[in-house]
Amino acid sequence: MGRVPQGGRNWEGFGADPFLTGESAYETILGLQNGGVQATAEHFINYEQEHFPTLESSNVDDQTQHEIYAHPFLRSVMAVGSVGT
């Protein structure tokens, strides 16, 4: 989601807007799969910390989970044939 610039995974996403990220992920995945490539939603929800991952927690409260992370992850899962870890 790009919430923390030092997170280290920002280049993999579509920005910090949850709705835009979800829709962009959905359309990107459908585009890949329409081209004959099987897409996989890599990593489960909230996996975005690469900068000192053992020193910081990626735990989020319920409100943050629903307002920021749930929609993009849901839209990705809706489009793919598999989810990897």
TrEMBL record:
The keyword NADP does not apply. GO terms for molecular function: beta-glucosidase activity. Gene3D superfamilies: Glycoside hydrolase, family 3, N-terminal domain. It comes from the Eukaryota. It is an enzyme of class 3 (hydrolase). GO terms for biological process: cellulose catabolic process. This is beta-glucosidase. It comes from Suillus fuscotomentosus.
